[in-house]
Amino acid sequence: MNDSIVEEAKRCLQCKNPRCEAGCPVHTRIRDVIGLFRENRIEEAGEILFSNNPLSLVCSYVCPHEKQCEGHCVRGLKGAPVHFSVIENYISAYFLQGFEPTERLEVKKNGMKVAVIGSGPAGITISFVLAKKGYDVTIFEGNDLIGGVLRYGIPEFRLPKTVLDEFKKALIKCGVVIRPNTSIGTNITIDDFFRDGFKSVFIGTGVWRPNRLGIKGESFGNIHYAIDYLRNPDVYTLGKKVVVIGGGNTAMDVARTVVRHGCHDVTLSLNRPEAEISCRPVELEMAKVDGAKILECVQPVEFKDNGVVFVSLEKDEKGEMREIPHSETFHPFDSVIIAIGQGPRSVIVSTTHGIDVSSRGLVAVDECGRTTRAGVFASGDVVTGAKTVVAAVEVSKRVAEAMDEYMQSL
Length: 410
Ligand SMILES: Cc1cc2nc3c(=O)[nH]c(=O)nc-3n(C[C@H](O)[C@H](O)[C@H](O)COP(=O)(O)OP(=O)(O)OC[C@H]3O[C@@H](n4cnc5c(N)ncnc54)[C@H](O)[C@@H]3O)c2cc1C
Ligand code: SF4
Known about the structure:
By secondary structure, this protein is of the alpha/beta class. It has helices at residues 2-10, 19-23, 30-38, 42-52, 56-62, 69-72, 84-97, 101-105, 121-132, 149-152, 162-173, 190-195, 226-231, 249-260, 281-289, 381-384, 389-408, and strands spanning 113-117, 136-140, 177-179, 198-203, 209-210, 223-225, 241-245, 265-269, 293-295, 298-304, 307-315, 321-323, 329-332, 335-338, 342-343, 376-378. It is globular, with a radius of gyration of 23 Å.
């Protein structure tokens, strides 16, 4: 494996205009990082990666590289692109394990407190950037462990959870205080933060309310939602035959997790042709490798204790999916897992005045993450709806700068 990383780095052409960097949403200095790696200057390479993207290690595992850096690499025009993800993974893991911020960052505290609600990619990014600028950052996390979707959504076989333990250590080394098991909006509210002297508040609470189908039988004991299931698959007794409803990346993660928990008869039901579903092609391929079967162009219309009634769908003249009349068919399943997306919970905005939300309940912000209440900022999925890790990092870096500017102006 390590041989192939070195070989991969040697394949880089050190382009004058690196197309790979243009394809990266956070414009990682890929060419320079690979150049330093080749000169055995791994510390410097790691520093460049981390200071540009504190979550580079996570990104090396979960970014859709085929659409981003690797999808743009000039080598890919006539063959295989340089697989930067494996190089980034090696450097970032090395860097994070030896992370010592006091030497590297020379932090001078400025005495101002910041409250960060949520420890997903958005909250972690904000915390690293503001801690580096000298703020006293406290993360308030509703769960017992940090990471958000990285911890309680993306399965272990795609992202080892030990990575998140390294992030926790690094945050603490940067002076960040973590208050776990504290859901803001219940006992403690945003007003309490301002009363207690926090100069600004960041909301990075993600989207954790599963979308529902709203059909008969959805309240039965054998029907579950993906984001709830992935949180702790060990506690579910699903039976022998399971259907996962949905064709996104979350549905693929669910199907592959179900198989790994001992149920080998898993079907993915799709409301369109397989070729048109939204997940990464590689995720679908891997779900199939793991044994998932596909039931395409169907829509569930009723759940029963022992299965699902589906109607069949076909394309109309405009290319939109429509139901085929009288096509209801019962398919026996022991359990159903619904994976059709998530929306935000409203616990914070409903207990705080002055924070506007969109019709979908997403927090309304300007381009720098300022909410409609002075001193309160937001980014990540709670603003954009479900997106990607790198998208949360990209915008959160900007939001951290806006928070700094705001606090310095007080
Ligand atoms: C199953 C699944 C697989 C995915 N796979 C990928 C992938 O492969 N690649 C990729 O790039 N993206 C993937 N994503 C999307 C990506 O994980 C998210 O876009 C990203 O995690 C969003 O980060 P965030 O910080 O905004 O929110 P989150 O990760 O959701 O973190 C929000 C945090 O806030 C906490 N919180 C919520 N409410 C409160 C409260 N009131 N008080 C205190 N804390 C609170 C939550 O507990 C959580 O820790 C996936 C998403 C899912 C669901
Ligand atoms: S585009 Fe490919 S070959 Fe060129 S610098 Fe980037 S990784 Fe190297």
